[in-house]
Amino acid sequence: TQLLEQSPQFLSIQEGENLTVYCNSSSVFSSLQWYRQEPGEGPVLLVTVVTGGEVKKLKRLTFQFGDARKDSSLHITAAQPGDTGLYLCAQSGEYGNKLVFGAGTILRVKS
Amino acid sequence: GAGVSQTPSNKVTEKGKYVELRCDPISGHTALYWYRQSLGQGPEFLIYFQGTGAADDSGLPNDRFFAVRPEGSVSTLKIQRTERGDSAVYLCASSLSLAGGPPYNEQFFGPGTRLTVL
Lengths: 111, 118
Hints:
The complex is a heterodimer.
Chain A (H helix, E strand, L loop, with lengths): L4 E3 L2 E5 L4 E6 L7 E6 L6 E6 L5 E4 L2 E5 L5 E6 L8 E8 L6 E3 L3 E6 L1
Parallel strand pairs in A: 2-11
Antiparallel strand pairs in A: 1-3, 3-8, 4-5, 4-9, 6-7, 7-8, 9-10, 9-11
Chain B lengths: L4 E3 L2 E4 L5 E6 L6 E7 L6 E7 L2 E4 L8 E4 L6 E5 L8 E8 L12 E2 L3 E5 L1
Parallel strand pairs in B: 2-11
Antiparallel strand pairs in B: 1-3, 3-8, 4-5, 4-9, 5-6, 7-8, 9-10, 9-11
């Protein structure tokens, strides 16, 4: 099983600041997914990246997949308190089924 | 439409007891997954079903854990002789199918059942 490392573990910032969180592996990802999880809820899929070098934007969120497909980043512009949550990266298994998750980054945005 | 629902939302039990956790997937979804999330960790895969059959149960930690999906819809995760280390949030997810890539195998998660073993 491929180990996914996420950093930082915890991030506390003021509303309006920018931030980047990272997901890394020693092996190549076939594809990578980013999820956001709020307390008491299950993870919600934000994006799937497949192609090395791929960049996807979702409003104020920008997702990047490394050229070598071993790393990914999530950048949030002008963070808002509603962005608070646990951000998880995950890789799907060999047959695209079972997901392997990183430990996540806890983001807290203070107003 | 309704999302994945899980009952109970919270379960407190004593060490050694038997518990059942229920998952109702999104209507029409043929694939169902169970994950376990410990405090400060990401979800960890336990088992998934395609229809009524367990396609992969390699994540079940030991033979105290068992899951069924007798009619290809609702699933029950059963834990025998619970231990304090079983305390976690148990998440269920469903997808349209196992194969076909996104969006067909996109997993939708329920809110989880928080299990506490005293």
